[in-house]
Structure formats: C-alpha cells, structure tokens
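seq:
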Amino acid sequence: QIFNSTSGTSSLYINGNLVSNILVSTRQAIGSYVFLGSSPLYTSSCKSGIISKGQFFGIIDEFYVFSRALTSTDICRLANP
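struct:
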C-alpha cells in the first residue's frame, strides 16, 4: 500500500499490479504505530472499502518502508526483480 502525501492518494498493489487507488480525505499523524493494510480511521484502498481491525493471520513475505511514494515503475521493479 502506497500513500502519496502530495496527491493525497492511497494505492494498493498486489504482486506488482495496481488494484485500487483512492483519495484519502484526512491525513493525521499516527504516532508510534505502523498500520498494514488499514489506518487509524479504518480507511483503505481495499476494493470493498472495509478492512476489519485485528490480528493478521498469514505471512508477509517482504516489507519495505520508503521515504517517498513509489511510482508504478518502482513497484513493478520490486515485484519482478
């Protein structure tokens, strides 16, 4: 999931493919927590628009944190090395 603070959009990529892109109306500091796939306001780029809070059951193969919003080219390069 990519958040672009310049455009105010949140984009969700799965296996290098863009599956959703939404405008995020509120931007607030989240403190010391990192949210994967959701936000403190429970808004997301999920196709259904709803992600339940709770423990994640599964495996995260690769997790990256970048200081900038990645481009679609960056995403494709990471998904297909």
